[in-house]
Structure formats: structure tokens, C-alpha cells
Amino acid sequence: MDVVEEKQPLTTTTGKASPVGLKDDVIHIMDKLTIHQPKQQIISVVGMGGTGKTTLALNVYENPFVKEHFHIRAWAIVSKQYSAKEIFSKLLSSIGQSGSETDLGLKLHQSLWESVGNEIIRLCRGLPLSIVVIGGFLLKSPKTVGFWEDVAKNIKSIPNSTEKQEILDVLFLSYSHLPPHLKPCFLYMGIFREDREIRASRIIKLWVAEGFIKPKRAQMLEEIAEGYLNDLVDRNLVLVGRHRSNGKIRSCRLHDLIRDLCLKVSEKDKFFYAKRAPDNMTKVKEY
What we know:
The structure is a single chain. α1 crosses α2 and α4 runs parallel beside α5. With 287 residues, this protein is mainly α. It contains twelve helices and five strands. Helices cover 49% and strands 6% of the residues. It has three domains: 48 residues, no CATH class; 63 residues; 107 residues, Winged helix-like DNA-binding domain superfamily/Winged helix DNA-binding domain (Arc Repressor Mutant, subunit A, Orthogonal Bundle), CATH 1.10.10.
């Protein structure tokens, strides 16, 4: 990152500066900032003193479109002689917060994340299962504010309905983002009764027999299937019942609403059709 010393440091961001001759530069920088990028980016504005670098940056910073696009903006002056404490303090001050010298960096990080995270929790309407599953989904997703904001928008677009349907809609969002190799394995869990312990070895053998496991060199199909199961557990789509003495999963179970999702998607996609049965396993009719 290029650091440019300013002869007259800007002390406020509320003043209006006139970007004479800088209109094209403002538009160019705004395009770079607002076009969706998968990673964070740094845009350097360099040049001799007095050529309008600060004026240019300020006009981009205060532009109404930029304000609407970024839910958090912060401003700080960095000179050749600087301290991290001072920079963090200025950034926190820009977003209306303060903190001690030891936790400035942590507090700034939390301020940038905790807001979109709280919005996602709010959109889950306080439903614990939705929050847990979305949390597992975000754990395996890109750790960028932009991606989390897209998730919030997707949840927000879900129409208001009954509480059960709201949960299923949120759970479907997590299912739709599953890698292709995990989707049939997850849907297959619908053949088991909800909230009953299922031996992990039984699940793995059935997955292998159905041909759901993609072979890899120097790795047995059962080992790969075990990794698939762990991945579904990490996403909170499958719950662990008991562990073995070596830490591996001995048994697992399925929440009734997650099983409802499996059955609905399976029937819709013609994966299988299930009927209730009195034993531990649901009778399955394959299409």
C-alpha cells in the first residue's frame, strides 16, 4: 500500500470539496470500489503534493452512492511517521466507537463483521435451528463481508409464512450451497426416521453401495464417505449422537425439520419418494 504524506492533514470529512477536473477519476475509482470483488482490495492514489489526492479520495468517500453501497466506512490520515494505535483509534472513531489500546484491532475487526452477522441472525427470526444451520453454512463459506451480505439478502427475500415454512426456507438456502458431491448424500439421510440414532458405519455402507462416493487415489471409498459425513456434521445438517473412543463418529441423527427438507427436495427432484414406516427406516420408493 502506498502511503502519501499530506502537508495539511484533513481533520474532518464533513466539508465539501469541489473535484475540479477530477470527475472522471472519481467515477473510475467508484467503479472499482462498487463492482463485486471476491477479495478485499486496495486502491492507491499517488502523485505530487498539492495535486488533489485528498480531495479526490474525500469526494469518493462522501459520494451518496458509495455511502449506500458500503454499510461501514472509515477515514484515517496515515503519514510517514505513524502509530498503529493512532490509526485504529481514528478508524474506530469514524464508525462511532472507541476502545482501549490493547483491544483496538480486535474491536475494529468485530465492528466490521458482528453488524452483517447480527443482521443474518435477526433475519433468522430467532429460530435456533435456522441460526445453527446458517452458522454451519457460513463456516464453510468465503469469509468476506460481501458474501455474508449476499446471504442476508437471500434470507431477506424469503416470503413471510408459517414458522415451520420459514425454517425450511432458510435450511434450503444451506442445502442449495452444498457441493454437488454432498447433495445426494444429504438427501439420502431422509430415508431414516428423525431423532433416531443411526450407525455411522451403516450410512457409509449405504452411500458406497448407492455409488455416491467419488473415488480418489490411495484412499478407500469408506474413508472418503467418512469425510463426507464429517462435512455434513460441520455444517450442522447432521447431528452427532455418539463418538467412538478414537474420536470418530459412532452414530448420528437427523432433526425432524431437516428430514422434512430432505423429503421435500427428494420428491421435488425425483430423487426418491418416502412413506412412513413403523420401524427405524422409512420405506423408500425410487423413481
